[in-house]
Amino acid sequence: MKRTLLFALGGVLLGGIIHIAVVFLVPYYANNDAWAQMRKFGPDGQFHVLPVPEPGAEPLVSLDPNFVQAVCRFSLADGPVHMQAALPNEFWSVAVFDRRGRNVYSLNDRSAERTRLDLAILTPLQMAQIRQNPPASLDTAVVVELPIDVGFGLLRVFVPDGSLLAAATDALTRANCAAAL
Amino acid sequence: MRLLIDLAVAIVIATVLGFSSAWFAVEHGPWFGALTAGPWTAWPEAGSTDADPYSLAMLARTGEVPLGAGEGLSFTAENDSDGQPLAGRCVYQIVGQTPPARLWTLTAYDAAGRLMVNAASRTGFNSRDILRREDGSFVITVSSRVEPGNWLPIAPVERFKLVFRLYDTPLTTGGRPTDLAMPAIRKGGCT
């Protein structure tokens, strides 16, 4: 009896280890995370405007229906990513996420101090290389150094009422996720 | 033989306990870093690079794209100000102060976090389109039936939740305020 109890206690301890292992492994085996869901909107390396969230037709979970959004999955393997967009004079924000959906950078129109999005994302190595000979296109851009290889950007534009939806959607349609450096 | 039985007991306990507790923890989180104000709760770190492993597992399971610190902060309420769960057959009034923010939006979701089909085809309010009293205060009525004034329609579901998103707010950049003024959720009548 005593020995069975000892084995049961061992089982509880092993259960704790399984608990920790499962929690840590979930992100690597999840097949429906934000990154995977974004595949359905179109090819990587360009912005895709998401339909305005409606009951029964939400492009991604928990999006704010007061906003129009555009997403771009990108890779820094072939060089820096340069996002550009001319946006309405309304609240807008951009958030950059890593492969696991962690927010690594975010910016809103007021912190950018303009109605244009001009954001360059570089790895630390690319940053070191570009410092030698910085291109003129980066003079006005917000340049951020992020230690990621792939990720996605989500651009949100506030739509105060339905009459401004078309202008916001139009601006997002022309957003560029692969502007020249 | 006894050794085999004991070993089987240990393995069964380990498997059941390990997997069920992990599932529960990921399904019912996040657990750490909550910022609460009355019935409202936000998890400022849940989607950041400082996120704990449970929050990361949740993100991976739901596919949610959280607001970044430079964008805003999202508060969720599943209970009213008296601690009772929000029920679709009741009428609620949202009154009071909002924290400093350039913009806020209020959206109703069902218990699973999906937008609800409703009679008015309206899914949310924002600080811009709301009707205010002369002193700047406001009342939003949440109900499945038509209401005058700022009516946020919901479906007559068992349970629902409210999400209050603050955009460009000092809450995400400054320290945690000691008195965070969020609106109260007062229950009116139920049918």
Q: How do the strands and helices of this protein lay out in sequence?
A:
The complex is a heterodimer of chains A (181) and B (191).
Chain A: H1 2-29, H2 34-37, E1 48-49, E2 67-75, E3 81-86, E4 92-98, E5 103-108, H3 109-112, E6 116-122, H4 124-132, E7 142-145, E8 150-158, H5 165-173
Parallel strand pairs in A: 6-7
Antiparallel strand pairs in A: 1-2, 2-8, 3-6, 4-5, 4-8
Chain B: H1 2-27, E1 35-37, E2 40-42, H2 53-62, E3 72-77, E4 90-95, E5 103-110, E6 124-126, E7 139-143, E8 150-153, E9 160-167, E10 184-190
Parallel strand pairs in B: 7-8
Antiparallel strand pairs in B: 1-2, 3-9, 4-7, 4-10, 5-6, 5-9
Your description of this structure?
The complex is a heterodimer of chains A (181) and B (191). The N and C termini of chain A lie far apart (73 Å). Chain A is of the alpha+beta class. Chain A is built from five helices and eight strands; from the N terminus they run ααβββββαβαββα. Chain A is globular and about 75 Å long. Helices cover 30% and strands 28% of the residues of chain A. Chain A has a five-stranded antiparallel sheet with strand order 1-2-8-4-5. A three-stranded mixed sheet of chain A has the order 3-6-7. Chain B has 191 residues and is an alpha+beta fold. Helix content of chain B is 19%, strand content 28%. In chain B, the strands form three sheets. Chain B has a four-stranded antiparallel sheet with strand order 3-9-5-6, with no helix packed on it. The radius of gyration of chain B is 20 Å and the shape is globular. The model of chain B has no long low-confidence stretch (mean pLDDT 90). The chains are: A alpha+beta (181), B alpha+beta (191). The interface between A and B is large, with 60 and 63 residues.
